[in-house]
Structure formats: structure tokens, C-alpha cells
From TrEMBL:
The gene is hisG. Its cofactor is Mg(2+). It comes from Mucilaginibacter limnophilus. Catalyzes the condensation of ATP and 5-phosphoribose 1-diphosphate to form N'-(5'-phosphoribosyl)-ATP (PR-ATP). Has a crucial role in the pathway because the rate of histidine biosynthesis seems to be controlled primarily by regulation of HisG enzymatic activity. One of its GO terms (molecular function) is magnesium ion binding. It comes from the Bacteria. It is an enzyme of class 2 (transferase). It catalyses: 1-(5-phospho-beta-D-ribosyl)-ATP + diphosphate = 5-phospho-alpha-D-ribose 1-diphosphate + ATP. Its EC number is 2.4.2.17. Feedback inhibited by histidine. Belongs to the ATP phosphoribosyltransferase family. Long subfamily. Pathway: Amino-acid biosynthesis; L-histidine biosynthesis; L-histidine from 5-phospho-alpha-D-ribose 1-diphosphate: step 1/9. Keywords: Amino-acid biosynthesis, ATP-binding, Cytoplasm, Glycosyltransferase, Histidine biosynthesis, Magnesium, Metal-binding, Nucleotide-binding, Transferase. This is ATP phosphoribosyltransferase. Residues 51-203 form the ATP phosphoribosyltransferase catalytic domain.
Length: 210
């Protein structure tokens, strides 16, 4: 019998909820922080623990059959995968934010301005869709401090509570996308019996939570 592989985040904001969801589906596995792969004893499944950024490509390329990852990561990596189920956790929005005292007052005001982000692909599409030409500055983290350092006029970053924006003297200005954790598979994989069985277990866990 074949064994499926599901990729989940090794550590970070989605790790705990992903593990909890799989355990609630009745799957038995060890969750050692040191292991990168964990077999499930009562279902033909192995769990791969990965950086979230790698999950969409692993699923697209067939190294994993399934993955749990934020929609923001999928959109940014531009892979071709099937969305099998929204999971209701890891909710956040990708927003453009500006300093509290910025003189930018409309979307058009972003023309010619520098926007710092770790999401250049999604931001570019949004700006093109709104016919705005900004200078996208791709950085790898700590985006919120870049206006204060004089590196950008605005930022585009994930927001959940808004606390980080506030403590850096920034305010939300435009919504680029909403995101939550989703279960993904290869295109067409929804027709696989074993994958269907897992999706059904996940759906009953989600229904029980409503
Ligand atoms: O190590 P690895 O690469 O796997 O993890 P990571 O550091 O890239 O990601 P991680 O663990 O920070 O986030 C994983 C996923 O959680 C993201 O891809 C989103 O889908 C989701 N998520 C939900 C968030 C947030 N909420 C969130 N608030 N990801 C990041 N943030 C950050 C945001 O970037 C900002 O710095 O939290 C800060 C803002 O939070 P608030 O509450 O102050 O608004
Ligand atoms: Zn990451």
C-alpha cells in the first residue's frame, strides 16, 4: 500500500495548529522537535517538517503529496497546486502601511514611492492591477522598521493584531490580500481515495469546532 506524505511547518506560527489538526484527525505520530520526518502509526502517512517557504514547491514537484501552508506563501511562490481545504487558522492580511504622519493620502500617492516588503510578487501584481508604479524594495525581514530608517515610504507586510504596525508608528493603508492556512495537494490529487479520506477527517474536525 502506498504511503502519503504531508508537509507542515517545522516551527513557527502554523506548526502547533497543524500538529493539533492532524492529531485531532486521529493520527498517531511522534512530534519530536528534532525530527524532520515522522511516520504515522495508524494511517499510511508520513509527516515532513519543513520551512513554510519550501512547502508549495515540494507539493507541486511531488516530493510531498499534501501540504499545510499560508495562502500568502502559495501566492508568492506562484506554484500550480490544488486548494483542497481552508483550515481556519493562521488568519492574517497582507496590507500596505504608511507612517502615521505620511503625506500619502490615496493609492495614486504611492506612485514613485519606495515600498519595502518580503512579498514582491504579490505586491507587484496588486500595483499593476491598480496601475501604480512604485519602487518595490525586497528585504528579507524586519520590514516594519524600514520607513523609520529612511529606507522606504511605505511597507507591505502581514498584519494580524495590528500591534506591530502601531508600535512602529505605522498605519494600515490598503488591503492587498487576506490569508489563512490551507491544505494543498498536486493538481488532480483530490481524486485520490486516501487523500479524500484525510480531507473528510479534516472536515469533520473543522465542523466539530463550529
Ligand atoms: O521558519 P519559517 O520560514 O517556516 O517561518 P516564517 O518565519 O516564514 O513564518 P511565520 O511562522 O512567522 O508565519 C507563518 C505563516 O503564519 C505566515 O506565512 C502567515 O500565513 C501566517 N501568519 C498569520 C502570520 C501572521 N499571522 C503574522 N502576524 N505571519 C507573520 N506575521 C507577522 C508579520 O509579518 C508581522 O511581522 O507578525 C507581525 C505582525 O503581527 P501583528 O499581530 O503585530 O499584526
Ligand atoms: Zn518562511
Amino acid at each position: 500500500m502506498k504511503t502519503l506524505k504531508i508537509a507542515i511547518q517545522k516551527s513557527g506560527r502554523l506548526n502547533e495548529k497543524s500538529v493539533e489538526l492532524l492529531k485531532n484527525c486521529g493520527l498517531n505520530f511522534e512530534n519530536y522537535k528534532s525530527s524532520l520526518i515522522s511516520p504515522v502509526s495508524n494511517f499510511p502517512l508520513e509527516i515532513l517538517f519543513l520551512r513554510d517557504d519550501d512547502i508549495p514547491e515540494y507539493v507541486q514537484d511531488g516530493i510531498a503529496d499534501l501540504g499545510i501552508v499560508g495562502e500568502n506563501v502559495i501566492q508568492e511562490t506562484e506554484v500550480k497546486v490544488s486548494y483542497l481545504q481552508r483550515l481556519g487558522f493562521g488568519k492574517c492580511s497582507l496590507k500596505i502601511a504608511i507612517p502615521n504622519h505620511s503625506d500619502i493620502s490615496s493609492l495614486a500617492g504611492l506612485n514613485g514611492k519606495a515600498i519595502a516588503t518580503t512579498y514582491p510578487v504579490i505586491l507587484k501584481k496588486y500595483l499593476v492591477g491598480h496601475k501604480i508604479e512604485s519602487d518595490i524594495r525586497t528585504i528579507s525581514g524586519s520590514v516594519e522598521i524600514s520607513p523609520g530608517l529612511g529606507l522606504s515610504d511605505a511597507i507591505c507586510d502581514l498584519v494580524s493584531t495590528g500591534g506591530t504596525l502601531k508600535s512602529n508608528g505605522l498605519k494600515a493603508f490598503a488591503d492587498v490580500m487576506n490569508s489563512e492556512a490551507v491544505l494543498i495537494g498536486r493538481e488532480g490529487s483530490e481524486n485520490d481515495d486516501l487523500i479524500q479520506e484525510l480531507i473528510q477527517r479534516i472536515q469533520s474536525v473543522l465542523r466539530a469546532k463550529e
